[in-house]
């Protein structure tokens, strides 16, 4: 009707004007009817639903804006900004925060904004009696799980029997640290990022030498520059490469972590955010291989303990062995 009403004509008489107006009126009436029917259908679906899903901001969408809920479950609460969280919380009689405050936090552009501490972190600190730890995991071999369990979860994590002893192959070392100290694999500044070309080349060489079959493989690096370098070297393969943030919530059979930093000052940059390392190390199901310079990394107690953990499992190796 609107198309008919808009049909171009240079001049027309009263009858045509009346017809044009009638067409517009009919078009508007139909649009109102469609809007009313749409609203009725949406309300009917929502009123019959037992569970409604939405983003935090989406919880204020006009279709559900006035609803309240007996229980609101906030998933990935460790990454939720507090102001956005309250949009959903104010609609709840009961709140369940599900997430891990010891993994990736939300992305904050201004540290002065006061939003670096999430509502989940505050709850854990102020009301520990309300916290329940899900202590059994179904992803990792026990050796891969062990260091994160020790450093982040009071050594309370356990591996389900179906995954506890799974290996890539018989007698494999599921947790390995390959030390590049003394090999001259120096980091390089790449704009605002950091790369380590020799370390990247070694990882590719190691993946090829291992001749993995029927397993999913990924390489994680803390710097976008190193990720881009590895992507170029692994182009045409099925190996996925990404930053730690890009792998949150994912898993692969075999994970390589390119730690990248190698300098005499012991500067480790992004690696000082141990929550990111917790995420990176817990993506692997069957085998975890960390590649880095112990001379740089071990100047930080966390990484000294990480290397010692690999040694305790017989998983410490030197790049000179290859």
What is the number of helices? 11
Principal-axis shape: elongated
Radius of gyration: 28 Å
Give the total of domains: 3
The CATH architecture of the largest domain can be given as: 3-Layer(aba) Sandwich
Decide which structural class fits the backbone: alpha/beta
| Amino-to-carboxy terminus distance | 76 Å
Largest sheet: 6 strands, parallel
* Helical residues, percent: 25-40%
Average pLDDT confidence is 92
Q: Give the SSE string.
A: HHEHEHEHEHEEEHEHEEHEHHE
- Work out the number of β strands: 12
Low-pLDDT residue spans: none
The fourth-level CATH homologous superfamily of the largest domain is P-loop containing nucleotide triphosphate hydrolases
| Name of the level-1 CATH class of the largest domain | Alpha Beta
Observed structural traits:
single chain; alpha/beta; Rossmann fold; 6-stranded parallel beta sheet; 11 helices; 12 strands; 17% strand
Question: How would you summarize what this structure contains?
Answer:
This protein is of the alpha/beta class. The chain is built from 11 helices and 12 strands.
